[in-house]
Write a structure and sequence with these properties.
By secondary structure, the chain is mainly beta. The chain has one domain. Helices cover 10% and strands 27% of the residues. It is globular and about 60 Å long. The N terminus is likely disordered.
């Protein structure tokens, strides 16, 4: 038997929306982190198409999320080498990530659904699966909001990628060096460079 469940329409601010998603998606489920600050660096209306009459104009909000984790919290012990990172004056390890949020300018005109897309090495992905057959931004036309944030700390930073800034682990102030094993799979002939770099 099919059931239709109605959810209450809840109005929340852009900052609250970002904080909620980052808190859920950015760190492992067992880990505990808190958002210290949300900095919006740009806000631009990108679509006023008649196809989006349901949800109205869309905007893209870009910025930086500042977070902290407590290295002594038992919930954070799964984070490798966390205790080797520098702590701030609150005794926490600080880091930050860039984000990009697409949402209706008038939030109450959307469908009150938010999709989080995991990027691939800083490259925004995911929307193609919804939009390519429609030949337009289907997510906009249906009133969805969607979000990306950076998480790959081994990618060379670029204005074309979503970046994350994390502290460097040290051993009593000394740089930690060693060998790592990485496997890269390519389905087409391409150049390769490590750390990752556009080529």
């Amino acid at each position: 038997m099919n059931r239709h469940v109605s959810f209450p329409k809840i109005r929340i601010s852009t900052a609250s929306l970002v904080l909620l998603v980052i808190g859920i998606m950015l760190v492992p489920k067992a880990a505990a982190a808190k958002v210290v600050k949300v900095e919006i660096t740009s806000r631009e209306v990108v679509s006023t198409s008649a196809e989006h009459l349901r949800s109205g104009p869309y905007e893209v909000i870009k910025g930086i999320i500042y977070l902290e984790v407590d290295p002594n919290d038992p919930a954070n012990q799964l984070i490798v080498d966390l205790k080797l990172a520098e702590c701030n004056d609150r005794g926490n390890v600080a880091f930050s990530t860039e984000f990009e949020l697409h949402k209706p300018v008038e939030t109450n005109r959307g469908n009150h659904r938010l999709m989080y897309f995991v990027n691939n090495r800083g490259n925004k992905m995911g929307t193609w699966h919804f939009n390519h057959q429609a030949g337009k931004n289907w997510l906009y036309s249906q009133g969805y909001s969607y979000l990306w944030c950076g998480w790959n700390c081994d990618v060379i930073q670029s204005d074309r990628k979503l970046n994350i800034n994390v502290p460097i682990a040290t051993d009593n102030g000394n740089t930690i060096t060693g060998k790592i094993y990485a496997e890269m799979i390519s389905y087409a002939k391409s150049c390769f460079q490590w750390p990752s770099k556009d080529c």
